Every structure is written in structure tokens, then in C-alpha cells.
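Tutorial, part two.
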Amino acid sequence: MKIIVAVLAIVALATLSSGQKRFVCDPNKIYQENHCNYCSCAVVNNQLTFICTRKACLNPEYQYFRNCNPRNPIPCDNCWCLPRFGILCEL
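Running the prediction step on this input gives:
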């Protein structure tokens, strides 16, 4: 029993401390939001703005990705969990 608790504590600690790299929007790159919409950054009135297409996303994984948790690791080097958007991946 003590071994199971210790293993769970180590897994929980690794998950919390794994942290993901901070997302910095690059105007020269294209991103995909939750395996559906395409996004990019644009400079509008001297301010960097993040914009996405708004197509209807009916695939079941869309809501799953949309509800990601920033504390959980994402198994992709160029993906981020953003609370307002869900999982965003660089293409």
C-alpha cells in the first residue's frame, strides 16, 4: 500500500512540475486549434493579435481538446494548452 501511494505521489509531482513552455505567437507561423480551426498572429494597430478561422468543428475530439488542462503535459513539442482556446499546435 505504501509503495502505491509513493508511486502516485511521484507521478502527481512529475505532472505538476513538468510545466509546458510558454506560448509566444509568431506572425510567421500557422497554428491549428483543437485539430480544427487554423490560427495565426497579425499585427493590427501596432499590436500583435491572435486570430482563428471559425468553422464548425463537429469531430468528437474537438471538445476534448478544447477542455485541456495547462498542468497536464501535452505529448507534442510544438503544442500548448491555452485556457481560452484549448490545444494549439504549430503546423
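Residues 2-90 form one domain. In part three we will examine how such features are distributed along the chain.
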